[in-house]
Amino acid sequence: MTLDIEAYLQRIGYQGEKPPTLTTLQALQRLHLQAITFENLNPLLGLPVSLDRHALMDKLVHQRRGGYCFENNLLFLDVLTTLGFQARGITGRVYWNQPDDAWPARSHMLLLVTIDGEDYLSDVGFGGMTPTAPLKLHARHPQSTPLEPFRVDADQDHYSLWVQLGEQWRLLYRFDLMQQGAVDFEMANWYVACHPQSKFVNNLIAVRTGEDRRHTLLNDLYTVRFPDGSSEKHTLTSVAALWELLKGVFAINMAGIEREKLEKVLKEKSLFQQ
Questions:
Q1: What tens digit of pLDDT does each residue of 186-205 get?
Q2: Catalytic residue chosen out of the listed positions 69, 176, 194, 212
Q3: pLDDT for 217-228, tens place per residue?
Q4: Nearest CA to 53 among 92, 31, 80?
């Protein structure tokens, strides 16, 4: 079945022509991040996370839910190839809030997009620090985006993505260009969605990117982050406030989520102080 590209474009608010150009990619990436929230309600609640293209379209577009990296980036990959872009999925190891000498699993998916012979890193699924614009893979200088500056470094066998927060550069993830197939994404997705030690099984996470800020939620802590590295933090004091925040600021359609079940899981995992 052909992807319903018009439904997707309506979901993110894209209008106009859609040739496979850098300008189109920039607009799609920016609008996707503003419209489709990064969230992990399914793994937190023990619900399946399907990577089937029709399931992704149904959940993220028709149900107006969100998802994490594999869901967002696989849908985005489907959209890009449907529009005629040369693109494929690759994987990386997340170093955000980890020591540089750690060896985390390949738990992140991103995209490699080639336009007029130039390779770009495109990502709509890295949560609170997702680049809001495509980045040139082979440029070594800081690259501006609608929010923070980013930098791509190259080592002998991998690349590293960094973000500038204030005066500090922070390592986000390392990746290579190894060919990845559906089975690779399925295996990594199982780990992220089901492994007892996965942060997505043990925490409530939601991120929505705005024009000039990022809204992030970690359990009962709601944070608004600004490009200069500053932030505003708010501790939620009731599940009712959390529920309204998820529906409002994070624009998640909560119709398919059982409120009592969410409240029970938050209590069992000691994620919410009330």
A1: 999 999 999 999 999 999 99
A2: 69
A3: 999 999 999 988
A4: 80
Model pLDDT for residues 11-46, shown as the tens digit of each residue: 999 999 999 999 999 999 999 999 999 999 999 999
The amino acid at residue 211 is: E
Classify residue 131 by burial, with Cβ atoms within 10 Å: 0-12, 13-18, 19+. Answer: buried
pLDDT for position 274: 60
| Active-site choice (123, 153, 158, 195) | 123
Q: Could you give the domains of the chain?
A: 5-268 (3.30.2140.20)
Catalytic residue among 32, 108, 215, 220: 108
Q: Does the active-site annotation cover 69?
A: yes
* CA nearest neighbour of 242 among 210, 212, 202, 273: 273
Catalytic residue check, 123? yes
Straight-line distance from the first to the last Cα atom of the chain, in angstroms, rounded to the nearest whole number = 47
